[in-house]
Specification:
alpha+beta, 12 helices, elongated
Length: 397
């Protein structure tokens, strides 16, 4: 009889013991996989958001850093303003390759004149933009015309006619940006001409008019020249422009990164404790059947099986249960997050974009390796003791 066949018969022969060991590993594996997916998904989402933003530095009004992060990360509308003439000052700083302003607005809440409720609206300048324009050139081959908008991944036409309505103005939705898992997915982008057209029409067509302060912008995006250190540009901004804060893109979403680090640290402590408790429980379950296993293995020894074969048999049984439980638990963890990702993202107030398939495979392998290690530690000493028993002694006890 082959080793694996013998192991399988042993597992089926004591379903209670096998089921308890399986459930221990299954539960912790599912929790571990779900936790790591949430962590990686949030980091992946922030990375995609920064790539879509395309800026090396973003300049915001003093005290508005958190509002900007929340707006960009979670799509929460924000009303922040600073003088537009800051653009000329920044563009004159050595090392700045491009600057582009953005204006942040919002649609009305549950108003008949708006197809989308409280959606983040971003107005950009086509002449200087480097956030939306690259996508437009690649996918449309042209700029947006007046009356056209492009939406994030979650923006759609409610009537399936390719249009949306904002402040009583019907606009053509010409496309959707790639998903990022951030607030950009529920953002509508349009140029300043369209914004002015909407504002003018809203005076009579909307429940509340859209007001765009003249000479004001919400943020200024900066792209640096090749090899330019962000610090050489940040210092002149602080010196020459009052009441603004330049935020390097690697430091953007710092508050949310700190929150995620704290949350992940707490969850990892829980996971480690769960693995320890599982190892103790598996060892306890295994010890409950020591007497039965002694007799069984002693019979094998008397029939010619070596100590190494008996040890391998016992460890293989644990490894097989651990591997099956780790794979099954991991798949359930993935399915759980896939089904409730919106709920989890809203609960922890963090963006989320499902990690790539290769990342999931790596997590699965890590999960399986940890499971095998924990089970090996849990049963190794007792398996060694059983395999070292002399056949006659084992059958007498």
């Amino acid at each position: 009889m082959s080793l694996f066949r013998f192991v399988w018969k042993n597992i089926k022969g004591n379903l209670v013991r096998s089921a308890l060991a399986f459930l221990c590993v299954f539960g912790v594996s599912a929790f571990f996989m779900a936790t790591m997916i949430i962590s990686q998904g949030s980091q992946y989402s922030m990375q995609k958001g920064l790539q879509s933003l395309g800026a090396d530095i973003i300049v915001v009004p003093y005290g508005a850093q958190t509002d900007i992060e929340t707006a960009l990360l979670m799509g929460k509308p924000s009303h922040i303003w600073m003088p537009q003439n800051n653009l000329q000052i920044i563009s004159a700083i050595k090392g700045v390759a491009a600057v582009s302003p953005q204006i942040y607005l919002q649609s009305l809440f549950q108003a008949a004149c708006c197809s989308v409720s409280e959606t983040f609206l971003v107005v950009y300048d086509p002449a200087t933009d480097f956030t939306v324009t690259p996508w437009l050139q690649q996918n449309l081959g042209r700029e947006l015309a007046t009356g056209e908008v492009v939406g994030g991944a979650y923006i759609f036409s409610p009537d399936n006619d390719g249009t949306i309505k904002l402040y009583g103005t019907t606009l053509k939705l010409v496309g959707n940006l790639n998903p990022t898992g951030t607030g950009m997915d529920q953002t509508v982008f349009f140029n300043i001409d369209t914004a002015n057209e909407i504002a003018k029409a809203s005076e009579t067509a909307a429940a509340s008019p859209l007001v765009i302060p003249q000479g004001k912008v919400s943020s200024i995006l900066i792209k640096l020249g090749p090899g330019i250190d962000a610090r050489t540009v940040i210092s002149p901004i602080y010196l020459n422009i009052p009441d603004v804060v330049p935020v390097p893109s690697p430091d953007l979403f710092g508050t949310f990164r700190t929150q995620m680090t704290g949350l992940l640290g707490s969850l990892m402590v829980v996971i480690v404790l769960a693995w320890i408790l599982s190892a103790v429980l598996i060892a306890l379950v295994f010890s409950m059947s020591v007497h039965e296993r002694q007799r069984q293995m002693s019979v094998l020894r008397s029939l010619g099986a070596t100590r190494d074969y008996v040890l391998k048999l016992l460890l293989t049984e644990g490894w097989l249960l651990a591997a099956c439980a780790a794979v099954t638990g991991s798949m359930c963890g993935v399915a759980l997050i896939a089904l409730f990702k919106t709920y989890f993202s809203g609960t922890i107030k963090m963006p989320f974009l499902f990690p790539s398939f290769s990342s999931l495979v790596v997590l699965l392998l890590i999960n399986a390796a940890v499971s095998l290690l924990v089970v090996s530690v849990a049963i190794f000493f007792q398996a060694t003791a059983i395999s070292n028993l002399e056949p006659a002694q084992g059958m007498r006890e």
